[in-house]
Q: What sequence folds into this?
């Protein structure tokens, strides 16, 4: 049970404590643990200024950094539901996986934001971000609630970069793969990182990639991994390339649907030029590589 994480407390703390409580009477039924800890993570959770000089906080767990700030089994085969109750200065907005439960005013300039995930995910897919965001809900696509979270001075660029590509990508993948597996889809601008990271239901995009042009290829790549990589996850890190392989292929299919067959050919010609083939992979039991199946 993770009761509370506080960026404000993290900034000022240099103490590491851990208390573990074990209910011995329930050992033969359903043991429950409460872990209380505080300190400064070695990695995985970052406090950094964005390109505008404003303080932000974000998590970056790939591939095995969740253990640096969460007491967890840090392996793709181990999935769990979870809930974050994030306490932060009231001027910050907090985004995370799952659904927002409420926003609480704690007084003294602090607020608490609970986000709850009802669908089990691998540990590295858990994420939180705290910053001064311009958050925008822009309707639904195929029944999926869509959100844009951008820094206030990049609000218009966030709309251009995220919103036009997100809707057709969601509609294409739900019609060709299956129902979207999570509670919402949020496209989130963050500091520090480059590229993007396909956290379940809240994708993080590096701040430099938010421009005045739609990023259809990038959005399609990351959104496709909500199905292959997030919902259907490899059993071991040795097969992590499958997530990127599916994402590359399905992003090209979505681009073809959106812009025509020549777009598919151009994408794969460029990819083949950048990544020349070094061999061929054969599988005798493809189903053994994954920890779940789509229904």
A:
């Amino acid at each position: 049970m993770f009761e509370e994480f506080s960026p404000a407390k993290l900034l000022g703390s240099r103490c590491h404590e851990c208390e573990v409580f074990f209910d011995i009477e329930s050992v033969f039924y359903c043991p429950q643990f409460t872990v209380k800890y505080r300190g400064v993570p070695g990695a995985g959770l970052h406090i950094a200024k964005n390109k505008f000089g404003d303080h932000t906080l974000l998590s970056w767990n790939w591939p095995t950094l969740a253990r640096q700030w969460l007491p967890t089994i840090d392996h793709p085969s181990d999935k769990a539901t979870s809930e974050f109750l994030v306490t932060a200065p009231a001027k910050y907005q907090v985004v995370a996986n799952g659904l927002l439960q409420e926003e609480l005013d704690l007084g003294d300039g602090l607020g608490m934001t609970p986000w709850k995930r009802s669908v089990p995910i691998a540990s590295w897919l858990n994420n939180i971000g705290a910053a001064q965001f311009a958050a925008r809900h822009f309707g639904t696509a195929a029944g999926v609630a869509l959100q844009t979270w951008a820094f206030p001075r990049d609000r218009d660029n966030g709309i251009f970069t995220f919103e036009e590509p997100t809707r057709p990508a969601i509609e294409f993948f739900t019609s060709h793969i299956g129902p979207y597996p999570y509670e919402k889809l949020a496209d989130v601008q963050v500091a520090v990182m480059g590229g993007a990271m396909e956290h379940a239901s809240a994708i993080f995009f590096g701040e430099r990639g938010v421009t005045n042009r739609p990023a259809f290829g990038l959005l399609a790549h990351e959104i496709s991994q909500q199905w292959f990589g997030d919902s259907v996850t490899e059993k071991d890190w040795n097969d992590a390339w499958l997530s990127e392989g599916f994402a590359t292929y399905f992003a090209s299919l979505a681009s073809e649907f959106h812009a025509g067959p020549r777009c598919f050919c151009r994408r794969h010609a460029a990819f083949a030029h950048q990544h020349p083939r070094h061999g061929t992979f054969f599988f005798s039991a493809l189903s053994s590589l994954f920890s779940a199946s789509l229904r």
In short: Helices lie at 7-12, 155-176, 216-224, 241-259, 261-274.
